[in-house]
Amino acid sequence: MNRDQALRLLHDNLKDENLLKHCYATEAVMRRLAQEKSEDEELWGLAGLLHDLDLELTNADMAMHGDVAARMLEENGAPEELVDAVRMHNAEGLRLGERSTVLQHSLAAAETLTGLIVAAALVRPDRRLAGVKVSSLRKRMKEKAFARGARREVIMECETAGFDPDEFLAMALEAMQAISAELGL
Question: CATH no. for residue 125?
């Protein structure tokens, strides 16, 4: 599966613009993390791009989310490592604590962090990613009421994946800033 095929699959199944932007942001972060780890950038990027492929089909039912997407990916010939990462990323399901690979931990942490980063941009007067700093993200990580859906324990799985938390924040922010026009931020 290549990116063009993945984009067709994504756009055939997701219509919500904000959800699509979340997928693009997660793809950008995952590509950056793959570069850092000397991993397969295409595979990691596709995991980020397709991780929420089934959200509209499942009506965001977290008991089904991830499993449906994994079946869709299998049917489209995606590699097993990609399928497993997408199946295991759902932090709300029974998967927390079951993730075992660097890719699985990285995807869960990255896709969760994108929500915190977007929220940090949206509370700025200019509503732009350009002004967001790692220091403000670090501060926001400690504020339980801020971006409540961005579960900090999932973001901290970056450590299990072998990333320093501050470096993880910096790489994710840099990756999202690089596509800020596409994200509308």
Answer: 1.10.3210
